[in-house]
C-alpha cells in the first residue's frame, strides 16, 4: 500500500468522476477564507469589538490597525489550520508503510504543509506588528520601527506569543520540506499544534479570575478546532483530487472528529462561563448573542458530522459516494469558516464579565483571596479544581481501566497490584494539583516543597510501577495491513531515538536532580511562579522528570537499553547525595527563595519569609527519605528476582542438554590441569 495510489471503483458503464482542477481548489479555499473574514467582521460589529475612533486626546492607532488586527488574525489561524491538517494527513491519514515511509500522497501533503507553514509564519509576524500598534496606540508605521519592536515586542504577552508562533511556524515549514517519514511528521505536527495554541495563553484568559479554567478551555478549543478543521480540509482535498483511497482515512479521522467536537462543546461552555457574569447576558449583550450564533453553528456541525459518520463513510468504496463526501465536506467547511470567524471576533472583543478587584496586589496576581492559616484539614482536604490536571488524570485512569477490562474479556490476566499502583499514583497527582495543597503552595515555600516532593517522587514511583506501556502493548490490537496503528506507534516510540535520549542515565540524572539547582537557585523559580502557564509547566516538569528517573530505576515497561541493577543502585545513591546537598543548601540559606514572587503574595500568617524558605529545605530533606527507601527496596527485590529467573533458566537449559555447559567447563578445567602437569614434568634423559 506504501507509495501507491488507487482510484475508487466505479460501476460498469458509469463515467469515472474527474478530479477537481487545482485552480478550482484554490478558488474554493479563497472563498472559505473570504467567508471567514466576513463572519469575523460581522461578529466584531455585533460583539462591539469593531474599530471606532478614539476620543480626542487619546492615542489612536487608526482604522488600518483597528480592523487589520482581527482580520489578519483570522488569516493566521486559517494558515495554522491548513498546516496542521496537511501534517495530520501525511502522518496519520494517508497510506504509509509499516516502517513509516510516507506515500506519494503523504509527500505531497508535507509539501503543502511547508507552504502553509511559511505563509503562517509571515502572517503571524504581520499580526504581531498590528497587535503591537494596537496595544501601544501607535500607527502601523510607528510600531514597525526597530526601536519599538526591540523594546516592546517581547514584553507584551500577546506579541511575544505571536513572535514565538512565527518562529515555530518557520521551523515547521523547513522541517516538513525535508521530512519523509511519519515519525518526523508526527513531531512537526506536535510543534504546529503547540504553536497554534500559543495565543490562547495570552488572550482574554490571562486577565480573568478563573484563569486556570479560561486558559485550559481556550487551549483545548484551539487544539480541537485546528485538528478537526485541518483534517477535514485535507480529506476534502483528497476527495476532490481522487489521489488516494479515502475510506480508511475517513474512518480514522471520524474518531478524531468525534473527540474534537466533544472537546469543542465542553470548552465552549467553559469559555462562555469565564466571560459572562450570568446566562442572561447571552441574550442581553451582543457578545452573548455571538456566542449563541457560534454555538448554533457548532451544533449544526455535529449534525453534519453524524450524517457523514453514519451514512457516508462506510460506503466510500464507491466513486459516487466519494462525490457525496466531497459535497458534504464542502458544506461542513463553509459552516466551520463562519464559526472560526465568530470565534476570532469573540477573542478580540471586550467581554461582558465585570472584573472583581481583590483587596491586595498579591491577591490580584494570584487570582483569588489569600487562604487562611494552614491546618491539616484545609491543606489535605481542601479542593480547588485545576481543570487541566483533573481532566488529564481522570482520562489516564479511565484508559488504564479500559485496557485492564479488555484483557480480562479476552481471558488474559493483569496483576491487581499494578492497577492499584497506577490508580494510587493518579490519585496523588489529583491531590497535589486540586486539593488545598495546590493553593497553599503558591503562597508558601514550605508547602510548595511538600507539593513538589510528592509530585516528583511519590506519584511517579506509583505510576511507573503500574507499567502503562506494557498494558497498552497487550491491550491494543495490531494494525491491519501495512500501516501503523496505535500499537505500532507505541512500539516505534519505545524504540525511537527520543526514548533512548529520555532514558539515558545522564539525562535523567540531570533533569531530575541537577535541574533542582537551576530552578530554585536562579530567578527561574520566581518567574515561573509569576504566571499560571509557568506554574503548570513547572508541575508538568516535576511529574515527567520523576517518571523518567524512576522508569530507568525500577520501570517494568520496555526501554531501549535497560540499566544493569548495579548501575541503578549507583544512580540512586548519587541522586540521594546530590538531593541531600540541595536540601542542606536550602536550610543554610541566608536569603528567602524567589522573593520576587513570595514576598509579594504573602499572607499575614507568614511572618518571616526566610523562615518559610528554611522550612522548605527541611521538607526537601525529610520527604525524600521515604520514597528513596521504597525505590531501594524495589531495586533489591527486582535484582533478587532477576537472579532467581537466571538460575531457573540455567537449570532448564541443563535439563535440556544434560548439563552440557557444566561438562564443557569441567573438560576445560581438566585440559588446563593436564597442560600444567605436562609443564611440571622434568625433561627426559
Description:
The structure is a single chain. The protein is mainly α and 685 residues long. Helices cover 73% and strands 0% of the residues. The chain is built from 29 helices and no strands. Helix 25 (565-587) runs antiparallel to helix 27. The longest helix has 33 residues, at 104-136.
Secondary-structure-based class equals: mainly alpha
The total strand number stands at 0
Low-confidence stretches: 1-16
Order of helices and strands: HHHHHHHHHHHHHHHHHHHHHHHHHHHHH
Number of helices: 29
Coarse shape: globular
Number of domains: 3
Our Rg estimate from Cα atoms comes to 30 Å
Distance between the termini: 83 Å
Strand content: under 5%
**What kind of oligomer do you see?**
single chain
Helix content bin: over 70%
Mean model confidence by pLDDT: 85
Largest sheet: none
Structure characteristics:
mainly alpha, about 0% strand, globular, disordered N terminus
How do you describe this structure in short?
With 685 residues, the protein is mainly α. The protein contains 29 helices and no strands.
Topology:
Elements: H1 22-46, H2 63-93, H3 104-136, H4 140-143, H5 146-152, H6 157-177, H7 182-197, H8 211-241, H9 247-275, H10 281-284, H11 286-312, H12 319-347, H13 361-366, H14 376-380, H15 387-409, H16 416-434, H17 436-440, H18 445-465, H19 468-475, H20 486-494, H21 497-502, H22 505-520, H23 524-529, H24 532-554, H25 565-587, H26 595-598, H27 609-623, H28 625-657, H29 660-680
Helix pairs in contact: 1-2, 1-12, 2-3, 2-7, 2-8, 3-6, 6-7, 7-8, 8-9, 8-12, 9-11, 11-12, 15-16, 15-19, 16-18, 18-24, 18-27, 22-24, 22-25, 25-27, 25-28
